[in-house]
Amino acid sequence: MTRLTVLLLPALLLAACGHSPDRNEADAPAPSGASAAITVPGASAYDPRPAALPFRLDVTVSSDVSRALDAAGVKLTVEADYFGKARRGEAPVNLGREERQISVRNQSVTLAGRFDAGQVAREVSGDPQVRVSAGVARSAGPMVYCTQFEEALPIAVETGGFIHCELLSE
Fold this sequence. Notes:
By secondary structure, the chain is α+β, with helices and mostly antiparallel strands. 23% of the residues lie in helices and 40% in strands.
């Protein structure tokens, strides 16, 4: 009995290690018989795992910006783009976007930092990133220049971000 166990143990270990998580399921032959599942091209084969890393963003505006935008009755738009470095390829992976309208004054706002942790685990190399910008629609009012904030999202949670806006022309 011991001899049979010693002979079968390596075969069982090899069979158990045969599954690779990087294996492309689309290349696998379809199972035959009535139990074959029909897949829809483009359908999501995973369950999304929502995650959030909220962070603070300090927005400062010059007195000229505040005066000009108040006179025009326009608000400042803050946009946060969440992305990551792709595991394969050069193009960044889009993880979502957040947009907020804020009053024109010096203030701290909290951005949600929402993204799909499952998508990050599958498609992103390293931490998710955030790029935050602010501005005014060109047709809506005066021309405003605002700095940008870009950082790894976990660091943004720890340190917060900063954007400052100046008036370019009325």
